[in-house]
Amino acid sequence: MAVVEQLIRAEEDGSISFGNYKLPEKKKLENFEHGGDIYKVKTFKDITKLESNDNFVYESVPGTTVTEFKETEKGVEFAVEGSSDAQITLGLLEKTEYNVFVNGASIGKMTTNVGGKLNLSVELSEEKATQVRVER
Hints:
Layout: E1 8-10, E2 16-18, E3 27-34, E4 37-44, E5 47-52, E6 55-61, E7 65-71, E8 75-81, E9 86-91, E10 97-102, E11 105-111, E12 117-122, E13 130-135
Antiparallel strand pairs: 1-2, 2-7, 3-4, 4-5, 5-6, 6-9, 7-8, 8-13, 9-12, 10-11, 10-13
Protein name: Endosialidase
Organism: Butyrivibrio proteoclasticus
């Protein structure tokens, strides 16, 4: 897989791809329209962050590249890669229990906090994307 050189892009299947963990300095792109939403992305080697309509959606430390990111009524799914393991925070519904899957295997149930944030750690590599699915 490759990083997203333009920082964020729409895919033919309706998903979005964003992030470039290879950038040495922070770059951002605002006012990216997709599916009726306005996105803002900030990314570089230390952090990748995505907002939609001024609401928190995704953050990883260190930075990552995310492809095939889809939000549904049930949750989110995406593929992620990076140069090292990452701590990922997702903005979901508050105080809601979700089943979390990494590469198709369940890693258990997690409940979001009052702010709707869910935290998970993922082992990453630059050679192969890790698939993440979080659903109610």
